[in-house]
Q: What sequence folds into this?
């Protein structure tokens, strides 16, 4: 039995190739989940490129990509995903129904057409399938492996995911914006009692006050949701590009003081969901 989560991209908005961002990482959203004999991928930001190289090195030949939504920072690694060009690789892509598009395949095709990109999607030789889902759908991907979904509050819409296996649950809740004074009932249902919740903590509260309507949240709101839902560990995610390592360390310390199970996502870190340490501080392990 295996249930491991590896962070390949933790940044929001756009990638940051700066020395000041190395500790937490500069690639945009991408997480690998190895669970129940399956390989799941959450979002296709720039972290998808190094993940793809890892797949080829380790002879991983099939995966399921679960997209939260189709904004640039969550799909801009897709054209650079090397296994997509390998004939014996298979990839099933799930995404919410998108207004004006038949499926996510139409979006990715357009992104790789002239004048936006020199190589069309038809150049990819892997077996790629595109599937629509609706927020609230449940995916039964393998015996004992269940993925639940929920609607998020983001411009154009987004989907959160809850992966359940062997009595443990991992939730991926980005990108979403809270309404001050109101706990999001869709999120509460999705994260109830969860062991680890990755949550959109792009802004500080001071920053959020000037960016209402931009589709993102704060660690403070994440803590409120965790406490109301009885969830155990809060993983700060979708780090703002303006938050360098020093800023992230300060945010992480403040969040952990308020909620002992809080920690910030770091690129390259793996969580073993079946062997999580007690909730008494940061729970990451290299």
A:
């Amino acid at each position: 039995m295996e249930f491991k989560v590896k962070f390949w991209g933790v940044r929001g908005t756009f990638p940051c190739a700066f020395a000041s961002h190395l500790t937490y990482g500069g690639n945009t959203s991408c997480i690998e989940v190895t669970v129940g004999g399956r390989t799941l991928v959450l979002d296709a930001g720039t972290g998808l490129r190094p993940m793809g190289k890892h797949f080829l090195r380790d002879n991983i030949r099939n995966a399921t990509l679960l997209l939260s939504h189709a904004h640039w920072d969550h799909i801009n690694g897709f054209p650079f995903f090397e296994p997509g060009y390998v004939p014996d690789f298979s990839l099933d892509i799930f995404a919410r129904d998108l207004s004006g598009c038949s499926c996510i395949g139409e979006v990715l095709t357009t992104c790789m057409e002239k004048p936006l990109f020199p190589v069309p999607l038809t150049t990819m030789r892997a077996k790629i399938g595109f599937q629509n889902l609706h927020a609230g759908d449940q995916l039964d991907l393998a015996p004992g492996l269940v993925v639940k979904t929920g609607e998020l509050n983001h411009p154009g819409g987004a989907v959160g995911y809850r992966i359940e296996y062997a009595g443990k649950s991992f939730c991926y809740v980005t990108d979403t914006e809270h309404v001050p004074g109101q706990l999001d009932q869709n999120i509460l249902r999705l994260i109830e009692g969860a062991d680890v919740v990755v949550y959109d903590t792009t802004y500080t509260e001071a920053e959020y006050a000037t960016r209402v309507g931009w589709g993102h949240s704060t660690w403070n709101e994440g803590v409120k949701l965790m406490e109301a839902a009885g969830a155990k560990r809060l993983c700060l995610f979708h780090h703002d590009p303006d938050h360098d390592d020093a800023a992230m360390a300060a945010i992480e310390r403040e969040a952990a003081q308020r909620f002992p199970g809080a920690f910030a996502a770091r690129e390259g870190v793996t969580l073993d969901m079946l062997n999580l340490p007690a909730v008494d501080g940061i729970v990451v392990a290299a």
In short: The two ends are 20 Å apart (CA to CA). The longest strand covers residues 145-152. Confidence is low (pLDDT under 50) at residues 281-286. The CA atoms of residues 107 and 133 lie 15 Å apart.
